[in-house]
Amino acid sequence: MKKRIPAIAMTACALVLSACAVGGRSDPATLFDLGPLKTQQGASPLPALPPISIAAVQVPVWLDSSMMFYRLNYANTQQPRPYSQARWTMTPAQLLTQSLKARIAQAGGVALAAADGAVDVPILRIEADDFSQHFASPSESTGQVALRASLYRGRTLLAQRSFIRQAPSGSADATGGAAALAAASDAAISDIILWLHGLPLK
User: CATH for 46-197, among 3.20.20.70, 3.40.50.10610, 3.40.50.880, 3.40.50.970?
Assistant: First the structure.
């Protein structure tokens, strides 16, 4: 019996190591973005915006990564939770900045990078306060985007406004959340562009 103990111990040890190796593996995360630029239909045509500098969108620390977040509002509204197997292709700040510039260009406007330092061109600064999926129940959720836009000429604040948009999720998972956040982002950016048309940009 004593001679068999080392063999049994070695077998058990091998099984534990094997289990750790399998458990240590992780499947690659599913990647999402805001989708391709959509053709704007049904909206009244607006004149093209004059040149405007677009600063990189700013986000709070918890949103400054490629992780996808959701909140269980029915359990704890103050706890953002990350999906373990879903990621954005880039940070929400980068996704929103890219989408805003593309939409302005699509409408015939000129979107300049703030780093270019264009003279006498107003600069748009946007802060994102929320970019997450909200669950009202285990089976019902929406994508929510909250943006605060500020327009400056030099150091002078010309105008400021907050925009909040929600869109229903088609499914109670990361795929549904990504689609809902894409729709909410698109709506919020449309609101910002419409707001800019009413401001003294020239």
Answer: 3.40.50.10610
SS3 83: strand
**CA–CA distance, 147 with 137 (Å, rounded to integer):** 25
N residues, the chain: 202
Where do we find the tokens 């499914």?
171
pTM over 0.85: no
Whole-number Cα distances in Å, 160 to 23, 73, 169, 188, 192: 50, 29, 29, 14, 10
Residues 6 or more apart whose Cβ sits within 8 Å of residue 143: 132, 133, 134, 166, 167, 169, 177, 178, 179, 180, 181, 182, 183, 184
- 128-184 pLDDT, tens digit per residue, is 999 999 999 999 999 999 999 999 998 899 999 999 999 999 999 999 999 999 999
